[in-house]
Amino acid sequence: MPIFLRSAEEIEKLRQANQIVAAAHNRLAQILRPGITTLELDREAETVILEMGGRPSFKGYRGFPATLCVAINDHVVHGIPGSAVLREGDIIGLDLGAEYQGYYGDAARTLPVGQISRRAEKLLRVAREALYAGIDKVVPGGRLGDVSHAIQAHAEAAGFSVVTAFVGHGIGSSPHEEPQVPNYGPPGKGVVLKPGMVLAIEPMVNEGGSAVEVLEDRWTVRTMDGGLSAHFEHSVVVTEDGNEILSEGV
After folding, report:
1. How many CB atoms sit inside 10 A of residue 122's CB?
2. How far apart are CA 68 and CA 137, in angstroms?
3. What is the distance between the alpha carbons of residues 97 and 56, in angstroms, rounded to a whole number?
4. Mind listing the domains of the chain with CATH numbers?
5. Which of 38, 67, 126, 147 is the Cys-Cys partner for 46 at CB 3.0 to 4.6 Å?
6. Rg of the chain over CA atoms, in angstroms?
7. In Å, how far are 8, 158, 226 from 152, measured between CA atoms?
8. C-alpha angle 205/44/76, rounded to 5°?
9. What is the residue-wise DSSP string for 158-217?
10. Looking only at Cα atoms, what is the longest distance across the chain?
11. Alpha carbon distance 156, 164 (integer Å)
């Protein structure tokens, strides 16, 4: 598949789709508390997206049954919302997407539920920092490997590992496009970044080892060693002089 260079008009639609995603995330952060269920979070996310004129892009995608992907504690990505009740001390990854006028937004964040351990606090901080370390390398003329390496180097310097089984991706008029955006690898390699490229950069950082497994529901991914995992994502466009985070506000 080709790597698309989006026009100013297309980028504006992508910006609007991502602002819908950001608004939904902000609402979830407001209502998150011990005792809430993941299904309640899912319904709230869908309500915000629809009220803003968007469409939940995950719902029905490859058969996924919900608006929101959830990941509690040792879950990494792609958990299905349901009756699970959040408890004090949990961490929860929230990943959601929206389509607006044929273009897609996508972002994720991992949040604390009440007071969490210092180790969990560090994991969330480092995972978020790793995302921004990667974004800092999104510049015209740079290489995709520079983004990947920056993410890996930051996470590993703090004593954590990055998931290698799942990667980020291009995004535009489809929710997943080329190129793939690994969270690991050597710098100076891979696709040359050009203005108009739009990337969904999404490090998944584990407390322990990088190995993961898919559960029997065929969606939920968790760490093999039972360690915590944190997931952060932004949709980012390469500009003439750097980058713009389209989903900023998340």
Report:
1. 15
2. 29
3. 6
4. 8-245 (3.90.230.10)
5. 67
6. 17
7. 32, 10, 21
8. 15
9. TT-EE-SSS-EEE-SSSSSEEEEE-S---TT-SPBP-TT-EEEE--EEESS-S-EEE-TT
10. 48
11. 13
Separation CA 114–CA 105 (nearest Å):
28
Q: What is the pLDDT of residues 142-195, one digit of tens each?
A: 999 999 999 999 999 999 999 999 999 999 999 999 999 999 999 999 999 999
Q: Are strands 91-100 and 75-77 parallel, antiparallel or unpaired?
A: unpaired
- Tell me which residue of 199, 200, 164 sits closest to 183, measured CA to CA: 164
For the segment 9-55, what is each residue's pLDDT rounded down to a tens digit?
999 999 999 999 999 999 999 999 999 999 999 999 999 999 999 99
Interatomic CA distance for residues 90 and 115, integer angstroms: 8
Determine the average pLDDT of the residues in 208-221. 98
Tell me what percent of the residues of the chain surpass a pLDDT of 90: 99
What the block records as the tokens of 133 is 């370390």
Verdict on whether the full-model pTM lies above 0.90: yes
